[in-house]
Design brief:
The chain is built from three helices and four strands, in the order αβαβββα. The protein is an alpha+beta fold. It has one domain. The strands form two sheets. Strands 1-2 form a two-stranded antiparallel ribbon. It is elongated, with a radius of gyration of 22 Å. It starts with a helix and ends with a helix.
Length: 145
């Protein structure tokens, strides 16, 4: 794996994790949004990652030849979480039904915070890998002095 390819893999990881953190932040910000433009409560969003240029036959061929694969990561899609909305008893809420229940978003703050910590750690790992690659390149240049 070349030096620049290593940096590119880390860079794609940084970009993907930044997007993941943005989506988590959006979920947290809308944790109490009971009505969106579609008329329903906010639905939690989740990014779907995949390996860049991952064709199974190519990965299998490379593995048979002992070649490493790895082109980084990309966001394939941002999907809505289809879990049911929470029902909260709040008869004074403007969105309450005839029984006094309000449909709340399917966002769980604890889950979102755990995902945020996980995303932050993955981001930091990619920064560390990029810095290690940069350090190796600098050491290689110093050898030539």
């Amino acid at each position: 794996m070349s030096l620049f390819r290593s940096i590119n893999v880390s860079a794609t990881g940084l970009t993907a994790e930044r997007l993941r953190m943005d989506i988590i932040s959006k979920n947290i910000a809308n944790a109490n949004t009971t009505r969106t433009s579609s008329g329903t409560p906010y639905r939690r969003q989740v990014p779907v990652f995949k390996e860049s240029n991952s064709d199974f036959s190519q990965v299998l061929e490379n593995a048979k030849n002992g070649q490493t694969t790895g082109n980084g990561v990309e966001v394939m899609a941002i999907k809505e979480d289809k879990t049911p909305f929470k029902k909260v008893y709040d008869p004074g809420h403007p969105e309450a039904d005839k029984d006094g229940y309000v449909q709340m978003p399917n966002v769980d703050i604890v889950t979102e915070m755990i995902n945020m910590i996980s995303s932050t750690r993955a981001y930091e790992a990619n920064v560390t890998a990029m810095n290690a690659t940069k350090s190796m390149a600098m050491k290689a240049l110093e050898i030539g002095k």
